[in-house]
Amino acid sequence: MFTVGVVLFVLGILLSIALHELGHFLPARKFGVRVSQFMVGFGPTLYSRTKGQTQFGIKAIPLGGYVRIIGMIEPKAMASKGIFKNIINQTRSAASQDLMEADRGHTFYELHPGKKIVVMLGGPIMNLLIAVLLLFTAFIVIGTPQPTNQINAIVNCLPSGLNEQGKCEPDAPISPALNAGLEPGDLIVSVSGTEVSGWDDLVKQIDDAAGQTVQIQVDRGGQTSTYIVSVADITSNEKKDGYLGFQPKFTLERQSLLEIPRFIWLSAKGIFELIVNLPQRISGVVAAVLGDQPRDPNGPISVVGVTVIGGELAAAEAPLIYRGLDLLVLMAGMNLALFFFNLLPLLPLDGGHILGASVEWVRKLFARLRGKPDPGAFDTARLSPLAFIFGIFLLGFTLLLIYADIVAPISLN
User: Fold this and answer.
1) Which of 78, 127, 136, 241 meets the CB 3.0–4.6 Å disulfide criterion with 338?
2) What pLDDT score was predicted for residue 230?
3) What is the pTM of this model?
4) Would you call 21 a catalytic residue per the annotation?
């Protein structure tokens, strides 16, 4: 199942990339701008087909994709020589390669700034829609696993008697549940006469009874029985914590629609914290690669690492529906990461082009209010040196993460 999970996740990544690029492609064509290429992946082309004015294809490395929108940068006279000027010149030259006379009046740089923003927002918005659809399917249509007050399995010992593999040591003290004679399938009805309404209520009652002897009433196959149980006290960090020693049975419960924006908010918060603490995160990845410390499970991860986790989820010892839910949520999280990452106001990301179009819109508005001539399109080529530096950093960071995910992977195990 690990291989099946990896294959399914790779297909999900390819589909997400294709839909992201479609989000750019459709509004660009709607506004009359020619798109010469629509590619999923990078590197050598594995398959391509030309339809209309666009070459559609799949490339060998599924780490991204692109659409080549004609006239992203306005052709201008070449700047003078210099390292940064050469980068600007090369950027202008590359943007003008596919430009034909018939494209005049129908290029990206000639669009109204509002339309430019729509084109560049299309890709990230598509990732957001994918995430919302996946979360809706997982949370609302299917539901998420929730613990119940029914016993699924008995844990034979106290937590202090468990080894690193989660197994009980031979001399470990037995758990209260095992000692009292509770069995898998028992439905806990009440604790010392107080009715149990659900898992959270059961946890609270057991915690309150830490170190005490209680009467636990259970429903076993339609027959009601009462057991005397001495609740273990495993209180730590001043938090009262009682312990019986069993694993609950889980059931699928459909969640509120509010769970979707909550998940999106938590994802945004996590990504923001990752960016703010990026230097420490990078040093942590380097230390893990060098073997100095374990990999932070909440740290940055590459597509390779996420794919491996997808394989592990598919191979986990859990019901098929639960594994499918985990894959849906993981894919949703990846699309949310793409959504927020692409909105960063840095070239060559979509957010950088959105920032340029926004500046252009403001400049045009001020020029009109002051009765000045139209200042024209914002010259994003002048920012290409910064884009080049950011691109080098992004490439290096990506390669570091891929290497780390191979030699020191984040694992569910």
Assistant:
1) 127
2) 92
3) 0.85
4) yes
